[in-house]
Amino acid sequence: MYAGLKHLRSLFVLIVLAFSSFSNANTNANDEDNITIIKCGTLIDGVSDAAKLNKYILIKDNIITAIKDEIDIPESATLIDLSSCTVLPGLIDAHTHICLNPEDEKPAILYKSIPFRTLEGAYFARKTLEAGFTTLRDMDSEGAGFADVAIRDAIDQGLMIGPRLQVSTLAISITGGHMNIKGLAPGIDVPQEAAIADTPEEKLKQVRYQIKHGANWIKIYTTGTTRHINPKTFEPLTQMSLEEVKMIVEEAKRWDVPVAAHAYGGDGAANAILGGVRSIEHGFFLSDNQLQEMAKRGTYWIPTIKVYIPESEARRNEPLRKKILSSHQHALQKAMDLGVKIAFGTDAGAYTHAANADEFEVMVGYGMSPMQAIKSATIVAAELMRLEDRIGSIEPGKYADIIAVKSNPLKDISALKDVSFVMKNGIAYKNNY
């Protein structure tokens, strides 16, 4: 009996060793499988202050494993020759609305179904990926319910092609405020483009409700829109008190969800900053003191400049439009002087989808260096989204989110408007180099 057990034990050991050897052989055999090598002419890695020349990026599956000057290319590896191009990290737009169509002449919430807007948003998401933006932070579905969550999840599950998404579902506003449809007879019951919440209890419930249904961010409107700006003093309408903002931030923090505030300036912006939000959206009337407080606290700013130039609602009010543009430029220059963290965002949806890179020209025109503008759309935006360990730069250990353009954007930032190669998570979706 003991001899039989000893024999079985020996046989078991041999089987384990055999499977181990087979497994090791497979591992060794697969070491060169799923290898992609990108040959770069010029490399802007998203973190360095200068471009690098003639580098090789080694990718295993979907992860960057090395950046080298020289490399032995395995026969089984896929070589992508971008030696005539400038290679960059996949771009990040930190303020979009993929469920909005900027060409709509009527409110989508009244004339389009949520299923249609979901499909439309999926189309815009793919077009934006093809334009070189591999990650988006979508800031309010604008009445499309949880369509942004559905699009995000479908992309993550491989059901459709699009950028990596973080979403904020329905933003929180107040009765009569931004995104609360008005102008109709009191008896008409219409859907709303935001989650309307007036009391502290209602606001807390909405924070929990949005998070329950998949929000990565809570977005709040602490000021109104351009229609709510006082035409004489240029003071934006304040929509939330400091205490309300603090309450929302604290509740969202319990769920590990950050808060973004639509805030043009004035008391609404001050309440958002002092209340502890992670980011200020738009902020064209931010004061020097408010920017200084943002720098002190590490609050991010997403300026979204371009949308207010040709397509602003304020274009109907030329004095207001001029005030917005001049204030925006001053605020951007002051923010750079103070060291405020500036992340790239376009308000696409109010602005043309897939034309996101237009924002770069304005940022550079307002005083940013091309490298600063590129970093705002790569590593800084990744840090805003708390994804800097995975995206935002071309470094070992990060996802292979990589794009290429045919000329050097450090010499002409408009080069980013014509992206010829797009890879997201190790898969090439555009290859026109």
- Give the CATH architecture of the largest domain: Alpha-Beta Barrel
In whole angstroms, the N-to-C terminal distance is 71 Å
Task: Describe the global form.
Answer: globular
Q: What's the SSE pattern?
A: HEEEEEEHHEHEEEHEHEHEHEHEHHHEEE
User: Rounded to an integer, what's the Rg over CA atoms?
Assistant: 25 Å
Structural class: alpha/beta
Count of folded domains: 2
Low-confidence stretches: 1-30
CATH class of the largest domain: Alpha Beta
Could you give me the name of the CATH homologous superfamily of the largest domain?
Metal-dependent hydrolases
**How is the CATH topology of the largest domain named?**
TIM Barrel
SS elements, strand count: 18
Largest sheet: 8 strands, mixed
Strand coverage percent: 15-25%
Approximately how much helix is present in the residues?
Answer: 25-40%
Average pLDDT metric: 91
Instruction: Compute the number of helices.
Output: 12
Question: In words, what does this structure look like?
Answer:
This protein is 34% helix and 21% strand. With 433 residues, it is of the alpha/beta class. It folds into 2 domains: 91 residues, Urease, subunit C, domain 1 (Roll); 266 residues, TIM Barrel. The strands form 4 sheets. Strands 1, 2, 3, 4, 5, 16, 17 and 18 form an 8-stranded mixed β-sheet that branches. The N terminus is likely disordered.
